[in-house]
Amino acid sequence: MADYDDVRTGRHCVFILHAHLVFVTKYRHQVFAGRHLTRLEEVMRAVCADFECDLVEFNGENNHVHLLVNFPPKVALSKLVNSLKGVSSRRMRQEFPDLVRHYYRANRLWSGSYFAGSVGGAPLTVLRQYIEQQNRPV
Questions:
Q1: CB-side neighbour CA atoms (13 Å) of 124
Q2: Domain boundaries of the chain, sorted by first residue
Q3: Tens digit of each residue's pLDDT (9 = 90 or more) over 65-100
Q4: Which of 19, 38, 56, 128 has the most CB atoms less than 10 A away?
Q5: pTM for the whole structure
Q6: What CATH number labels 4-132?
């Protein structure tokens, strides 16, 4: 069972929803140094707060970043991703003029695609078995 500290509540629900997100730079350019990743984390934490989400973990390398996000069921993950990528791209362009050269072709920092995976809870096989074993009335 999950730790009760992770359980969140809404008006009509109780939930634990986590997503692992990965964003890759356009053309896989090696863009980021440590200072860029530090600022990216701050920007992405602010965006998550606007969506009532919690950025649990953040890290990255020179051409991609990983985020672990705890989000409420009312948040559409695609809308959150769109905001995270859009706001971070705009802020990085404004605050780090040295990154402008990476925007030269498409005027974008991030690739158009992303990875999103659900995280936590029981494995699918265990869940399937649990559901199959319910006492169905006749």
A1: 2
A2: 4-132
A3: 999 999 999 999 999 999 999 999 999 999 998 888
A4: 19
A5: 0.88
A6: 3.30.70.1290
